[in-house]
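Note to self: the last two entries modelled the partners one at a time, which told us nothing about the interface. This time every component goes in together.
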Amino acid sequence: MTDHQWLELAASYALGALTADERAGFETHLAECATCRAEVQAYGEVTGLLVHAAPASAPPPELRERILREARRLRPLGRRRVPVVPWLAAAACFILALGLGYGYLRERAAGDQASRALATARDTLAAQDSLVATLLAPDVGSAALAGAGRPPSARLFWSPSRHRIVIAVYHLPPAAAGRTYQLWAIAQGKPVSLGIFNTAPDGRLTAAMVVPPDLKFEVTAVTDEPAGGSAQPTQQPFLIGKVTRAD
Amino acid sequence: MQKTISRVNFEAVLANQQGQSRWPDGALVARISAGDDRALGELYDRHGGMAYALAVAIVAERADAEEVVADAFGQAWRTALQFDPGRGSVAAWLATITRTRALDLLRARGRRARALERAAQAGTNGLAAPLAEMAVAPDRGAEQQEAKRLVRHCLAELPEPQRRVIELAYFGGLTHTEIAAELQEPLGTIKTRIRAGMEQLRGLLAPLLSGEGS
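The predicted structure of the combined assembly is written out below.
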């Protein structure tokens, strides 16, 4: 195929209209063609907008509660509480710990259909990839968060290119009832929430969180907030640390 | 590793930040990845209507659509960590998950897509609803309403055969080969129509696309 012929497939690819063979061939080509990647990106956005062409249809009110009920049964993977060893061994530990997490998940899903368990397994593998990839990203920076020189403490890894941070917390008792811990990035003096978390009874937590794109920050901090987190901090931080970049 | 211990006066910062209570979508997803189910509820309040409308357009049956939306938000809940803001908006991410789940269910049931039935009727307007329907759409947010209005308007601008093949691919999940068989037209014709239709849509929708607005 000529470059021109490949380019003509970009719109159909984004729309999902290629046959399996065509798609495989096109994806191989995509890996080495920036022009086609840009075309796919643009047509992907066009495809994304087609959702607005669906005729309006109001969901039944009980659907919201059903979704929340199912969510409470199965916590997100990023929040899985796993044992933490010193951070140098962290990457290896994540794989093991997530495997254990998967076993736990599988147990919980025992009553569910096999397809649901399969979906969970796929999600777990992807989340595991995401954690490890964040730690191994070439641009990963890290920060040691501390309070008044004594425990608790935390270590944070941040990959700007992957928009992810991984945080490991030590010696921090679980938040009081009705309270939660919240992690902040201090960007140009302004706190931006990165997410809320809680520790296990042993005072530890490993979690990954999403960082908004284009958010530049050098300082991160942890505060104690009302359950659900706050839009802006309501307390002085008890952990704070400066990010050191890999480069 | 050097520890930096300093105090940031959050109270002083807070004084300048009052009134910013509405979390942006990205922050909601970050809260979800940390296990905050209230954030999931907020995300549903914002985008549940869009997801449900999409599911109904694909699977037709309301009970099936509910199943699809529940599955889609369940997946969003479990995999919030994988959401990459660099690759698109939260709404687009949710729409992709919902569409994939809906098409999976359709295939699992061996059912023909609703879009297919529609296309079989000559003279149909396809799934792009009449413009009059927009005013009563129960979506939240002026931004969503504006996007809806613009997208429907642009789809209506396309020649009917082009709009139809795009709808069959998007709402019906059909490949161009399947569309050609369904409409009993040559494959080359279908490919050309998809390409021409998408090209025209891209031009018409430029104001909503990143990097092509100007």
